[in-house]
Automatic annotation (TrEMBL):
Start and end residues of each stretch annotated as Disordered: 434-474
Keyword Phosphoprotein in annotation: no
Residues spanning the membrane: 150-171, 234-256, 290-312, 318-338, 345-369, 389-415
Entry's localization field: Cell membrane
Topology class, membrane: Multi-pass membrane protein
Superkingdom field: Bacteria
Species per Swiss-Prot/TrEMBL record: Streptomyces yanii
Keyword NAD attributed: no
UniProt keywords, alphabetically: Cell membrane, Membrane, Transmembrane, Transmembrane helix, Transport
Protein name in UniProt: AI-2E family transporter
InterPro entries according to UniProt: AI-2E-like
Family: Belongs to the autoinducer-2 exporter (AI-2E) (TC 2.A.86) family.
Length: 474
């Protein structure tokens, strides 16, 4: 009988523990039912919040825990990341936009710097063009055994003398035929006046005299502006002479020490990009040389044939007009139009309408032969530029730097096209070279191909810029 109270005590403790467990299970079941009801009736409750509610219900007896919200409280959806809320297209546009703004700002600053030192830039560009024309002569003289300094001096002196003689010849011919041309122009104006009086336009002599009087009055009232323009012309002449001297000195040093200058420029390039730039430089120089020599040859052919046509038609100043045609041929598209129009106008005011029409036919025939036969055959594919790129580059160069900019624009575009094409091929070759090597039977089919090796002339020619990447032994 003494053991009965102890047994009853243990039974009561077990019943109490069993009741507590049943109470906990009932509370957990009610909590799960409340959560499922909230999901069906309202917005989705985050998983983390459900876990927190379950934990809070399980540990509702802990006085340090925050109680769970009631079942009737509205669910709050989680806010997404702001980056994930922006559409993908807008994110790409923003990433590209600020990079384009940086590039535009860099180009703007570069153009400001170039405009501040425009004379120096144009003089150096002219020196590069002249060097590209004269450098093959230096290389040929060196192959004949002349030292580098003597070959450079002979080529530079002969080149400068020839260009000076051409300029002097043009001025001499213009001055020698100026009186004859003025008489011809006066006669042409009188003939034009008679034609207007007899034409069906019903122009009277009084109207022609009024136009001449207004022109004379305009010139008389704008004497100050004309004088200031003359003073500005003197300033321009001083700048032109300065640019000519800078171009001559730059040409001399480029002919003599071009290899060392190019190697010094390569040292400024980052080491990772140096192999690609070193390979693109010789190809760019060959493109520039081919462009200059081909343009000189095409311009010479145009000047000879158009000049002969003008001379046979007995137009005054045939030789100066031929020289002007040669010089304007260095401005693609626009130069041919200007020089041809100048020849037609001179023929019109001096020899009449029929001679002007014949000159126009001669100019159009020669230019058609030039565009469809001479340029594709002489210049070749190495310097071929799309006509749209030619027009846009000439227009942009003319707007930035006038006639000099129009002359430099097309060779710059041709060189840029060559450099970009080579760097693209070089990048593809490097990507294939560092790609994982294929194994098995497919190794032959997907083996990387190398960029074609440069022609051997650039390595045999010690002075050519095509061999500047080779080490020099002094």
């Amino acid at each position: 009988m003494s053991k009965l109270p102890g047994w009853l005590g243990r039974l009561g403790a077990e019943l109490t523990e069993l009741g507590d467990r049943l109470e906990e299970r009932r509370a957990a079941a009610e909590a799960e039912e409340d959560i499922e009801g909230d999901r069906d009736a309202q917005a989705v409750v985050p998983v983390a919040f459900v876990a927190a509610v379950s934990t809070a219900e399980d540990r509702s007896t802990d006085p340090g825990r925050v109680p769970a919200p009631p079942a009737y409280a509205p669910a709050v959806a989680a806010r997404p990341d702001p980056v994930a809320a922006i559409p993908w297209g807008m994110r790409v546009a923003a990433e590209a936009g600020w990079r384009l703004l940086v590039l535009a700002g860099t180009l703007w600053v570069l153009m400001k710097v170039i405009s501040a030192v425009q004379l120096v830039v144009l003089a150096f560009a002219a020196a590069l063009l002249v060097t590209a024309m004269l450098q093959p002569t230096v290389a040929r003289l060196r192959r004949y055994g002349l030292p580098r300094g003597l070959a450079t001096a002979v080529t530079a002196i002969l080149g400068f003398i020839i260009m000076g003689l051409v300029g002097w010849f043009v001025v001499w011919q213009v001055m020698d035929n100026l009186d004859t041309l003025s008489d011809k122009v006066r006669d042409g104006i009188d003939e034009l006046k008679r034609w207007l009086l007899d034409s069906p336009f019903h122009v009277t002599e009084q109207q022609i005299n009024d136009v001449a009087k207004n022109l004379s009055d305009t010139i008389g009232t704008n004497t100050e502006e004309i004088t200031s323009a003359g003073l500005q012309g003197v300033t321009v002449m001083v700048e032109v002479l300065t640019g000519i001297l800078l171009a001559m000195f730059s040409t001399l040093f480029l002919l003599y020490d071009g290899k060392r200058i190019w190697r010094w420029v390569l040292k400024l390039v980052p080491a990772q990009a140096r192999p690609g730039v070193a390979g693109a430089g010789p190809r760019a120089w060959r493109t520039l040389t081919a462009y200059v020599r081909g343009t000189v040859l095409v311009a010479l052919i145009d000047a000879i044939f158009i000049g002969l046509g003008i001379w046979f038609l007995d137009v005054p100043m045939a030789v100066p007009l031929a020289v002007f045609i040669f010089l304007f041929a260095f401005i693609p598209l626009v130069g041919a139009v200007i020089s041809g129009a100048l020849a037609v106008v001179v023929a019109l005011v001096t020899e009449g309408v029929f001679t002007a029409l014949m000159v126009l036919l001669v100019v159009l025939a020669v230019q058609q032969i030039e565009g469809h036969v001479l340029q594709p055959f002489i210049l070749g594919r190495a310097v071929r530029v799309h006509p749209l790129a030619v027009v846009l580059s000439v227009a942009a160069g003319g707007m930035v730097a006038g006639i000099s900019g129009a002359v430099v624009a097309v060779p710059l575009v041709a060189v840029t096209n060559t450099v970009v094409g080579y760097l693209r091929k070089y990048g593809q070759e490097e990507a294939l070279r560092h790609a994982p090597q294929p194994r098995g039977a497919t190794a032959v089919g997907v083996a990387p191909t190398r960029v074609s090796a440069p022609p051997p002339e650039e390595h045999r020619d010690g002075d050519a810029y095509g061999g500047v990447a080779q080490p020099e032994t002094e």
